[in-house]
Amino acid sequence: MGFKFVGRFQHNLDDKSRLTIPSRLREGLGSPFYATVGLEKSIVLYSLQEWEKISEQLQQLPMTNRDARAFNRLFFSGAIECEPDKQGRVLLPLHLIKHAGLKKEAMIVGVLDRVEIWSLEGWEKYEEEKFGIYEDVAENISSAGN
Fold first, then answer.
1. Where along the chain do its domains lie?
2. Which residue, 4, 79, 9, 93, is CA-closest to 45?
3. For the domain 8-119, what is the CATH superfamily, name and number?
């Protein structure tokens, strides 16, 4: 069983498009780790081990399926290998910054097997919407598992 990412951390993107990844999360991500386009306008970070696992799963999708091709193209073409500097900062490329709508403030969120980076505004909007239906969602996923 791998590292489980939890918590949320607010950090600012600096003038050189670098973002500090909290040490607790860097420890689990290792070095290098991978960043790519996430769902719902986020950037997603994976440890090398998790990246290899996901890559293998996605490679199994049939390339005759239009959705599989589209997803793989966007997911892998948007990916970069990250090596934090001595201060724990990673340089985020413009395409990922644009995808997440990052301006200055970012919310870095641990989500079990991955880390997500959201614009602060995007995260606050998401959280406000989803907390309103949190109990309904919990019931729905609980009944789906049975």
1. 8-119
2. 79
3. Transcriptional regulator MraZ domain (3.40.1550.20)
